[in-house]
Prior knowledge:
By secondary structure, the chain is an alpha/beta fold. The protein has 8 helices and 18 strands. The chain has helices spanning 16-27, 63-76, 128-133, 137-142, 171-180, 200-208, 258-261, 300-319, and strands at residues 8-12, 31-35, 80-82, 86-92, 98-103, 109-114, 117-119, 123-125, 146-147, 163-167, 186-190, 212-215, 220-225, 230-234, 239-242, 244-247, 251-253, 286-288.
Amino acid sequence: MAIAQPPIVPIVGGGPAGMSCALWLKSYGLRPLIVEHSARLGGMQRASPYPNLGLLGAPGKTARENADAFERHIESEAIETLRETAPVRVQTNGDGGFTLELAGADGAIRSVAAPALVIATGTAFRGSEWIGRVAGARALVAAGRILPNPAAAGEPDIDLGAHVLIVGGGDNAFDVAHQIARPGRRVTVALRGAKPRAQPALVERAYRSANAEIRANAEVTALIDGGHGIAVQFDDGSALVADRVVLCLGFTPNTREPWIESLGLKMDGNGYLAVDAGMVTSHRGVFAIGDVSNPRNPCTASALAAGATAARAIHDRLTGAQP
Length: 323
């Protein structure tokens, strides 16, 4: 069944998953529309100066460099993109399609009718609850002494000092510890629990890093700016002094926006969207791709694959190749 007039398929989120989905949708003869809240495409990749070692064919390139390459590819394909634009409302139409209302940076509202909708809103760094709970944290964040964005610790122009405290026990915490540990700089990873949640290989690699150490059962209770260092107090009465504190507390999915909540989509206990093998959510015609629906293995490679998978499922649905 041929499609006479290619329908618009909005993709909310211009990270790797959204761009991959758009590219594949175009190859299937559809008309993708990327809706991105920021001025650049790339998503979380834009925040990372670290090498993206898990992406086949891009050895040595940073996540940020990969984001640049992905964006150039989308632009070379002349795929329509609305930047600095975000959804404000979505309505389900009687024909099973959707009307998505979008607000641009100038406040103007644009309505888009579509037979399918793709959510690729990704995740955000956790840390706001920790900052609100720990005495002295807010002031140190404002002063730039605490980094809520762990990727910022890898920026080439940042002065981390001689001792960095990393708060967190997952993969990201130990990856950052490995990246920034070097002779002359101590890195302490403080865990709330008795042992790391990270993959053993990442923990071992951090241990091999010069001057990296792990402090278990260490809940931070207070932070005091001493001018030349941050006095960190723990719940067991112990303390240490660090030059910088980096929060590696995991991620939270961007699913709490009113327009997403209005769809009543099925989520897990942490707010990640539930999808089937075709990236279809609990609402027919709504797809979710990338980190927003993948709490187990969020990475660029899996995001690219999810985008391609969803594009095929959308094509098959719109052409009658599947029910």
